[in-house]
Amino acid sequence: MYLEDIYVTPKYRGKHIGSKLLKAVAKEATDSNCCRLDFSVLEWNPAQDFYKSKGAANLTIEEGWHHYRFSDKTLKILATNA
């Protein structure tokens, strides 16, 4: 399963809302027989500490994976050259 975004506004941080949201996603993943939950976090984002505290592995460091994207213009160029 791929997690696109979890965002808790500053007003509600520190109230375990992020933990509850993440647990709900984890339950959905396990109930759907998923064997992993992948997501990306920007380098500057302090949420990395939250995810690490929950047991997430940083694959960039541990396995050398990097997340790439073809965005709009490049994607269209690629598609027209097919």
TrEMBL record:
PROSITE patterns reported for this sequence: GNAT
InterPro entries from the UniProt entry: Acyl_CoA_acyltransferase, Diverse_Substrate_AcTransf, GNAT_dom
Keyword Oxidoreductase: no
GO terms for MF: N-acetyltransferase activity
Every N-acetyltransferase domain range: 1-80
Lineage: superkingdom: Eukaryota
Gene3D superfamilies, sorted: 3.40.630.30
Recorded family membership: Belongs to the acetyltransferase family.
Protein name from the UniProt record: Diamine acetyltransferase 2
Organism: Habropoda laboriosa
